[in-house]
């Protein structure tokens, strides 16, 4: 790992030092994570460099247990003295916190053993000039698409890499390196009272797989142009087609509702939903932490618990929650290896045909609203009530008629998830979620 200041052996030494210091302070158990990251971000607007940022960061976090009392501390100083101080500080915090019978490390048999490098590290070290050039190519392509692209919020390039090691007092010690690179462009179309912006992005672990900057800039421009001369829509109940990146957000809402914290605090409309329908009956949701170069791939979770491929929803029925050791104990269930969140989720429908691209999904929508942007965070997870600002297109006879803005779409998440009529074959990966566009039975659209 030529890019990093610290080697794997350095990290192992730091972790063992921290664990020793915690034991000497009086801890019954402890876990340590040490990490280092670095990267470059550039932003270009109207051909001019607006921002160049080099980031390097490192840190050590230690969690100690005094029986069932927990304390946590961190330091960015890797000297022996600083690590000793952090371990002592964490232990002092633990001594004064209340006992919690669910606190503690995961059971040793759940920890990942013999961890192979998952291969998520593809270093990319562009010079500032090379990164600026890529951003310029994307923005120039956006401007060249049409005379009505008159302005831009810029184009950005980011190259990031990090590595870490996690170790605990039950013999676990493993870590790996990973990378994450991206390119994005935000053009503005029109003038005066009719100006619209849109954006597009590409994000990959391997920079050679990023979209071509010209294609990305052109597509972002076409999206902005398509929004010009937007109108409002009369208030009513309409079927709604969510574009794939927004459908990924809908999966995120489901995950939030069936995750440990929401469940044991009883702040979810899907409490006690194991074995019950949470999606339409033709849908499956798969979690796969082993996808090569997946943004959510990981051989173990934030606690060192091994991850596994599983079907979270089968035929609409929920087969598993998303639990950490702590939230699992609160619910009387084993951890699912999801401390730190979900891993590579794919939504699929047993009804989807290979030809169900976006034009085919618009034909299935027939008459209704195709949504490409959602604004605000109007979701109440206790009741499932959902209400967000939206922007998109009115569709009649399966064809886009005109762009629509200044509307709100509202419904209840439970009904929305159970009322998914179809999932498209126009699959996109947004972060660690993979889905096509999603057709919802009906939503209330508030317009003029």
Explained architecture:
The structure is a single chain. By secondary structure, the protein is α+β, with helices and mostly antiparallel strands. Helix content is about 25%, strand content about 40%. The chain has helices at about 10-25, 80-95, 130-145, 215-225, 245-255, 260-265, 325-330, 360-365, 415-420, and strands at about 30-45, 50-65, 70-75, 150-170, 175-190, 195, 200-205, 235-240, 285, 310-315, 315-320, 345-350, 370-375, 385-395, 400-410, 420-425, 430, 435, 440-445. Strands 1, 2, 3, 4, 5, 6 and 7 form a 7-stranded antiparallel sheet that branches. α3 runs parallel beside α4 (about 215-225).
Oligomer: single chain
User: What structural class do the secondary elements suggest?
Assistant: alpha+beta
Into which percent range does the helicity of residues fall?
A: 10-25%
Report the radius of gyration as a whole number of Å.
24 Å
Poorly predicted residue ranges: none
Number of strands: 19
Strand content: 35-45%
Shape: globular
Output the number of helix runs.
Answer: 9
Provide a short characterization of the protein structure.
The chain is built from 9 helices and 19 strands. By secondary structure, it is an alpha+beta fold.
